[in-house]
Design brief:
There is one protein chain. The protein has six domains: 62 residues, Orthogonal Bundle (Helix Hairpins); 238 residues, D-amino Acid Aminotransferase, Chain A, domain 1; 109 residues, Nucleic acid-binding proteins (OB fold (Dihydrolipoamide Acetyltransferase, E2P)), CATH 2.40.50; 85 residues, 5' to 3' exonuclease, C-terminal subdomain (DNA polymerase, domain 1, Orthogonal Bundle), CATH 1.10.150; 72 residues, DNA polymerase, domain 1; 99 residues, BRCT domain (Rossmann fold, 3-Layer(aba) Sandwich), CATH 3.40.50. It contains 24 helices and 22 strands. The chain is globular. The two termini are 33 Å apart.
Length: 697
């Protein structure tokens, strides 16, 4: 392909991909399968790699990330980003409306919108192209985060339709609950401090140096205000401008209302105060704005905020109680987390007895003393946390809470890495909670999946000196564990843990079964700091065996996708410890998989060239096993139904929408039996030809 043809093709692909992005993220109406979308994007990436000088500034490939920002440049706002006046009860809202009607001697219309709990952002567009993103900062100037913001798929890089030559769009960058929960689960798994709430997570993410990491965290954004020079404004009111913005490609909330009076406003506030818990993201109030732009001009501004808008803040679910004591918990990577023990108090429908204190810096900032009266909130409706101390209630004899200097479990002197806030215990192989934590990780579902061996049973085995590391699991026998029992306290619940006949047999069987777990999961199960499930898969696939990983240099490890220097050094430190090498050798002798098994391609390629959707629950095998069969036999698994879908393999509980779409497009729907007959596989034969020979990535 010559350069001229490539230029035309790049423009065509860019336009097509962005249209699909708009349909998917803005209209929530996808018109193409995920597979077909990826194929278009891969074609564009290949062309841009061949002709790098033809890369467009608004190319969809910019959303993938990859650029590193060492420092964020400070930029002065063209239009100041003022804050809103806050109100905390309906009487203050009524006062706001009264003041407006005293100034405006005609009917006033208001727009009520959700107040997103995120990070304010200003987006600049010139001639329909996204050119700059700047944080609010101090309202006068902020940080240029353009590279990171490009990764947010709900922010258009090129506008659609008829739009002004130059304007700014203001909005809020948020982290949806699904992204927040996934990130915190991963951080806890890696021994890192979880984020306190989605807003903090969004703020931390947008300032990451690696835009590729930003893209992985799946931020979202909603636009709520258009800015341009007064003489260029083409709209009469705020609502009209937002509807136009939506047509241009911006993500504008559907949850807004035009209100004529305080009764309408109050109804909107009360509705969302109740319904906000059902939203997939956090809001902390309602924003009330005068709709008409001419009326806004008359009302004007104060030094800090517009006179034509106010934010009604929902009352935080808060309770006051007494701090009784502080526990210091040790995670599986040695991280020390302080936890407050409180006098029991009712909060958000539950009895709260404990609250996180995050780290030593947080305790110091609160100036926390024992027996203090403290305020407790549910951060992000999820984690109870102490937000403040009532100093007026503090007694002189109340002792200041001091962060510990030695591990509360093993007595080892605590250490803190440069640039980190957390203190941790370095006694990785001698500290009981670290040992038990690593064993619990090792047996978990995504790791070795040793069923029937939960937290309580690990504690019993550890207390009876039967396991001191996870390699000891493979020395357990029925005779060693049968009859063991202990009364344990888990989350203030007293229960008896017993190793009866059936339990003991199930545990031994599950341990034996775990020996066939693929190498990638074994690597993840080892619990190497910063090596999560996905990273373990990439390392296993690239290096091929545990011995290759052990002998690899830092440079060789960082050549692997998603492995940076921090992860590489952690891997080297792990295998530099002779005790870990000893454990690995014991696991090898036990029969665990420490090599990446080669994929065996079936000679039977009966599904070659077919795009197949798998949906529902199946009788003879799992959905993953069916997908494996499809790949083994030359077919492609696709996630959504389109005209290019060859057929659907439908089990019980197939989604009604998928069935409806398949029928409307004339796509054949095959039952499990029909599919098995098609590929020449008997119903009773429930083992994939290569099921035990490979791990899918």
């Amino acid at each position: 392909m010559n350069k001229e043809d490539a230029k035309a093709k790049i423009a065509e692909l860019s336009n097509t991909i962005e249209n699909h992005n708009y349909n998917y993220y803005i209209l929530a109406n996808p018109t193409i399968s995920d597979y077909d979308f990826d194929m278009l994007l891969n074609e564009l990436i290949a062309l841009e790699q061949q002709f790098p000088d033809l890369i467009l500034p608004d190319s969809p490939t910019q959303r993938v990330g990859g650029d590193i920002t060492k420092e964020f440049q400070t930029v002065k706002h063209r239009y100041p980003m003022l804050s809103l006046s806050n109100s905390y009860n309906i009487e203050e809202v009524k006062d706001f409306i009264t003041r407006i009607k005293k100034t405006i001697e005609e009917d006033v219309e208001f727009v009520c919108e959700l107040k997103f709990d995120g990070i304010s952002i200003s987006l600049t567009y010139e001639n329909g192209l996204f050119v700059k993103a700047v944080t609010r900062g101090d309202g006068t100037q902020g940080d240029d985060v353009t590279t990171n913001v490009k990764t947010i798929r709900t922010i258009p890089l090129r506008l659609k339709g008829n739009y002004p030559d130059f304007f700014e769009m203001r909005g809020e960058i948020i982290m949806p609950h699904s992204s927040f929960n996934a990130i915190n689960a991963e951080r806890e798994d890696l021994g890192l401090q979880p984020f306190a709430n989605p807003r903090n997570a969004a703020a931390g993410t947008i300032k990451l140096q690696d835009s590729k990491e930003v893209a992985k965290r799946k931020l979202d954004q909603y636009c709520y205000f258009m800015m341009m020079d007064d003489d260029k404004m083409i709209f009469k009111n705020h609502y009209e401008s937002l509807m136009a913005a939506k047509q241009w490609g911006f993500n504008v909330s559907n949850f807004m209302a035009i209100c004529q009076n305080v009764e309408d406003i109050e109804e909107f506030i009360n509705y969302w105060d109740e319904k906000r818990k059902e939203l997939p993201f956090d809001i902390d109030g309602i924003v009330i704005k005068v709709n008409d732009f001419k009326q806004r001009e008359i009302l004007g501004f104060t030094a800090k905020s517009p006179r034509w808008a106010i934010a009604y803040k929902f009352k935080a679910e808060e309770a006051r109680t007494k701090l009784l004591s502080v526990d210091f918990q040790v995670g599986r990577h040695g991280t020390i987390t302080p936890v407050a023990n409180l006098e029991p108090v009712q909060l958000a429908g539950t009895i709260v007895k404990r609250a996180t204190l995050h780290n030593a810096d947080f305790i110091e900032q609160l100036d926390l003393h024992y027996d203090d009266i403290v305020s407790v909130e549910k951060g992000g409706e999820i984690i109870p946390k102490i937000t403040s101390v009532d100093l007026s209630q503090r007694k002189e004899e109340n002792e200041k809470v001091a962060f510990i200097t030695k591990c509360p479990e093993c007595g080892t002197q605590l250490v803190k890495a440069d640039g980190e806030t957390a203190w941790y215990c370095p006694n990785t192989l001698g500290c009981p909670p670290q040992i038990k934590g690593r064993i619990e990780h090792f047996i978990s579902r995504k790791a070795m999946n040793i069923e029937s061996l939960g937290e309580g049973k690990v504690e019993v085995l550890f207390d009876n000196n039967l396991i001191k590391d996870y390699s000891d699991l493979y020395d357990l026998t029925y005779d060693k564990i049968f009859g063991l029992e202990k009364i344990i306290d888990v989350d203030d619940t007293i229960r008896k843990v017993s190793f009866k006949e059936k339990t003991a047999n199930n545990i031994i069987d599950a341990i034996e079964k775990s020996k066939s777990v693929p190498f990638a999961r074994v690597l993840f199960a080892l619990g190497i700091k910063y090596v999560g499930e996905t990273t373990a898969k990439l390392i296993a696939k690239s290096m091929g065996s545990i011995d290759n990983i052990i002998n690899a240099s830092v440079e060789e490890l960082t050549d692997i996708e998603e492995v940076g220097e921090k992860i590489a050094l952690s891997i080297k430190d792990f295998f530099a410890d002779e005790r870990n090498i000893h454990i690995i050798n014991r696991l090898k002798n036990a029969g665990l998989q420490f090599e990446q098994e080669k994929k065996v391609v079936s000679e039977n390629q009966v599904l070659s060239g077919m795009n197949i959707v798998v949906s529902g629950v199946f009788a003879t095998m799992s959905r993953d096993e069916i997908k494996q069969l499809i790949e083994d036999l030359g077919g492609k698994n696709v996630s959504s139904i389109s005209k290019k879908t060859t057929f659907v393999v439908a089990g019980d509980k197939m989604g009604p929408e998928k069935r409806k779409k398949a029928e409307s497009l004339g796509v054949e729907i095959k039952s499990e039996d029909d599919f098995l007959k098609m590929i020449g596989k008997k119903e009773s034969d429930n083992t994939s030809p290569t099921q035990t020979q490979l791990e899918l990535f």
